[in-house]
Design goal:
Blueprint lengths: L1 E6 L2 E3 L5 E9 L4 E10 L5 E8 L4 E3 L7 E6 L2 E6 L8 E11 L2 E6 L3 E5 L2
Parallel strand pairs: 2-11
Antiparallel strand pairs: 1-3, 3-8, 4-5, 4-9, 5-6, 7-8, 9-10, 9-11
Amino acid sequence: QVRVVESGGGLVQPGGTLRLSCIASGSEFFRIYGMGWHRQAPGGQRELVAYINQDGSTDYADPVKARFTIFRDEKTSYLQMNSLRPDDTGVYYCVCNARTGDFRTDYWGQGTQVTVSS
């Protein structure tokens, strides 16, 4: 079992910055294949924001390209968010695709709230 915990959310003014962190941990050895961030706006569906693959390649949703950057350091993923807009408001969830033994699946965190408002 892999535990995923996010941190770094909060209230920020439009044009501001935030950095989210996500730490994956477990009581047994696990291998991470990719980590990413999704967000769910109020009344909306959960959608992909950014993802970093095992080889370091990244994918971004069109609305966040050139503003958000995802990077990873071993079992920690970061989402640097610049030039934040009110429509970036939502709960941000970290996902970790990992394998323990022969079992590979996505592990999700509980989410961290990001509110962009003046």
